[in-house]
Amino acid sequence: MSDLFGISVGALQAFQAALNVTSNNIANANTPGYAKETVELTAAKPQSNGSVTMGNGVTVVGISRSFSQATANQLNTSQSALGQLNALQSYSSQIDNLVGTTAGGLSTALQNFYGAWSDVANNPASTATRQALLGKAQSVAASLQSNSTQLDALNGDINGRITSDVQQINTLATSISSLNKQIVVSTAQAGGQAPNELIDQRDQLVSNLSKLTGISTTLDSNGALNVFVGNGQPLVLQGSTTSLTTVANQFDASQLEISTSTSNGNVISGAITSGDLGGLLAARSQVINPAKNQLGQIATALSQTVNQQQNAGLDLTGQLGANLFSVAAPLATASTKNTGGATAAVSVTNIGALTTNDYLLSYQGGAYSLTNAADGSTVPFSGNGTVATPLTADGLSIVLSATPATGDKFLIRPTVQAAGSFSVLLSNPSKIAAAGAVQATPAAGNTGSAAISSGTVVNAANPNLLATTTLTFTTATTYSINGAGSFAYTPGGNITQNGWQVQISGTPAAGDTFTVKSNAGGTGDNRNALLSANLQSIPVLQNGTASVSSAVSALVTGIGSQAEQINTAQTAQAAVNTQAVNDQQSVSGVNLDEEAAHLLQWQQAYQAAAKALQIGSSLFQSLLTAVQAV
Amino acid sequence: MRVTQSLNQLNFISAMTTLERNLSQTQNQIATNLSFTTPSQNPVAAGEVNNYNQALSQSQQYDTNANSAQGRLSIEDNAMSQVQSALQSLRTLALQANSGTQSDQNRAAIATQATQIQASLVSLANTQDGNGEYIFGGFSTQTPPFALSATGATYSGDQGQRLVQIAAGRTIPDSDNGAAVFNSIKTGNGTFTATAGAGNTGGGVLGTTTVSNPAAYDGKPFSIQFAVTTAPLTGVVTTTYTILDSTGTVVTPGAPYTSGQAISYDGLQVTLSGQPAAGDTFNVAPSTNQSLFTTVQNLVTALQTGTGSTGAQAKLNNSVNAAINNIDQALDHTSTVRSDIGGRLNAITTQLSVSGSQQIQLKSSISTLQSLDYASAITTLNEQNTTMSAAMQAYTLTQGLSLFKFL
Question: What does pTM read for this prediction?
Answer without folding.
Answer: 0.85
